Automatic annotation (TrEMBL):
Source domain of life: Bacteria
Phylogenetic placement of the source organism: Bacteria, Bacillati, Actinomycetota, Actinomycetes, Micrococcales
An annotated Gene Ontology molecular function: DNA binding
UniProt name for this protein: Transcriptional regulatory protein DegU
Any GO BP: phosphorelay signal transduction system
Domain spans labelled HTH luxR-type: 152-217
Pfam families in the record: GerE, Response_reg
InterPro entries xrefs: CheY-like_superfamily, NreC/VraR/RcsB-like_REC, Sig_transdc_resp-reg_C-effctor, Sig_transdc_resp-reg_receiver, Tscrpt_reg_LuxR_C, WalR-like
Keywords: DNA-binding, Phosphoprotein, Transcription, Transcription regulation
Lipid metabolism listed as a keyword: no
Modified residues (4-aspartylphosphate): 58
Glycoprotein as UniProt keyword: no
Residue ranges of every copy of the Response regulatory domain listed in the record: 7-124
Length: 223
């Protein structure tokens, strides 16, 4: 993704939001908006047709909402866009559900323009979490609720010791470069380990590693 153009799709039930975000992103070097839609059903069709790298997805929409649309897009076999959820509340069960469903991160709708542009680039790059501390706090908030039992941690037994160490650092919000420094490895080696963790655990991206690590008890809330 470093040198390629980032293709973005925008899905929001407010036309002015779509137009505003579209104009902003199209004005950036290396970013092109390839289409937009007004609800979750349109989002799935849009992704299938335009094959974007990143989808900006409103979370609350009539008919098919952003969570269900994220779930459907994550289930598509031949396209794997990164999804950024757009929301008005950060500590929100909807946001947690969207992250669980396959979203790569979330952004407040009233965030500064620079944050939106940065978010698209970070998520497209894929080697770092978007807002690591906020992402972790949202996941921790909902995983720690008494009604939520820990998922079976057995899935982590498939990982080698090194892969497990890398997974824990990803779950703490570190980028590939930071993990490389922490474990005294080449950054490319870290990328390989992250790819293997994703493959072995059947996960889409780094955010899903964080969700799995908290739900499986690999990372303890508050640690």
């Amino acid at each position: 993704m470093d040198h390629d153009e980032i293709r973005v799709a925008i899905v929001d039930d407010q036309a002015m939001v779509r137009a505003g975000f579209g104009a902003l992103l199209n004005a950036q070097e290396g970013i092109t908006v390839v289409g937009d839609g007004s609800d979750g059903a349109e989002a799935v069709e849009l992704v299938t047709r335009t094959r974007p790298d990143v989808v900006l997805m409103d979370i609350r929409m009539p008919e098919v909402d952003g969570i269900e649309a994220t779930r459907r897009i994550a289930a598509l076999e031949d396209v794997e866009p990164r999804i950024i959820i757009l929301t008005t509340f950060d500590l929100d069960s909807y946001v947690f559900q969207a992250l669980r469903a396959g979203a790569s991160g979330f952004l407040l709708k009233d965030a500064p323009a620079a944050d939106l542009i940065h978010a698209v680039r970070v998520v497209a790059g894929g080697d770092a979490l978007l807002s690591p501390s906020i992402t972790r706090s949202v996941i921790a908030e909902f995983v720690s609720q008494p009604a939520r039992a820990h998922a079976d941690a057995a899935r982590f037994r498939e990982l080698t010791d090194r892969e497990l160490a890398v997974a824990k650092l990803v779950a703490r919000g570190l980028s590939n470069a930071e993990i490389a420094a922490e474990l005294v490895l080449a950054e490319q080696t870290v990328k390989t380990h992250v790819s293997r963790v994703l493959m072995k655990l059947g996960l889409r991206d780094r955010t899903q590693i964080v969700v799995a690590a908290y739900e499986g008890g690999l990372i303890v809330v508050g640690s």
